[in-house]
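Shift notes (night). Ran Sulfite dehydrogenase while the centrifuge was going.
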Amino acid sequence: MDSSELKPIAGGGLLDRRLFMQKGLCFSLAAMAAGSSEASMSSSQRLPWMREPGKAFSNYGQPSPYERRTIRWTMGNEMAPGNGVSWTPLHDLEGMITPNGLHFERHHNGVPQIDPQQHQLLIHGLVRQALVFDLQDLLRYPMTSCLCFVECGGNSNAGWHRRPIQTAAGYFHGMASCSEWTGVPLRILLEEAKVKGGGKWMIAEGADAAAMNISIPLEKAFDDCILALYQNGERIRPENGYPLRLIVPGWEGVVNVKWLRRLHITNRPTMARNETAKYTDLLPSGKARQFSFVMDAKSLITSPSFGQRLLEPGLYQISGLAWSGRGRIARVEVSADGGESWAEAELQAPVLAKCFTRFRIPWQWEGDNTVIKSRAVDESGYVQPEREALIARRGRHGYFHYNAIVSWKISAQGDISHVY
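Came back to this:
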């Protein structure tokens, strides 16, 4: 079945005709099979059988050639080769983990090809003992793993436009991905370097041609930052920061410095381009939000969404992702009548702090024009805002940190579009 065409669950018409089914309803195999012509077929008729020997072993697995449409969408800067972005196809994925080859990218001057035997990490500045580590040194330290999302501060920025963009959900909101990162807790190395009393900030710098650097409060560095060497069980790939990446859970992507080579401990932020001219938000008052590190709660319905189509009235599953840099997602509410009423979706376990959370809810579509949307609430009590409320608070000069509720309009013909 083409992912752009969503078929209703067979037997859905037997259920009552409310917008949402009762909480806790599951799609049973029996319900899915009811009314299906395939149910009466014999197994020999239904199941394909490979009669010839298959392909040989490979040294590294690749996706099926039938899944070639599930790709990152890339966009470069013609005036500055190596500067650009790629989006994760969230609309084509399931679960909570992003495959390494589909993790979004944001590069400022290309992807460096770094020999791990030559790479080193320097920790210096307001420390009692400057330290230099090579990769073999770091591999000897105790490691830890954390599941967390990384989201660019510029993710979803088309939401600031006056007209709603019409593109796939992932190619609009896909500068966000979720992985298991494994590496050395940063606090271990900072304790070894013995930070001096005046040290309040850490300047992290990458080894790329842009010499990307950014300021991070030391309190966060000692809390939960990781010097990541592995992503989803394998060594980090070059476009994701090989051979060493700083992971700062829950904070905007720019501070998760790739190709990490230097940590400079100082008493003040460096006021680099990417924390002054960029990644700040000009407010209606004329002041600018700066160092707004934490990514606020956000949710997104990925199915059904733009580019997909409902074939006929019936029972469908609404599914999507929610995340928050403040902690765990407490609940996700879904509306199928443009916000007139809301129902709480089921959160797929595990529900982890600062991590993608998959939500699902069964929905009976009657074949009418309607608008579906979701809103996330995190454990701090923060509620994802409507677009109008976000603009009223932040003004119309924004580019970064867009996290408003996303609305999909479904026509009587089953076509889906993005609406405000």
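The chain has two domains: 107-289, 298-419. The longest helix spans residues 186-193.
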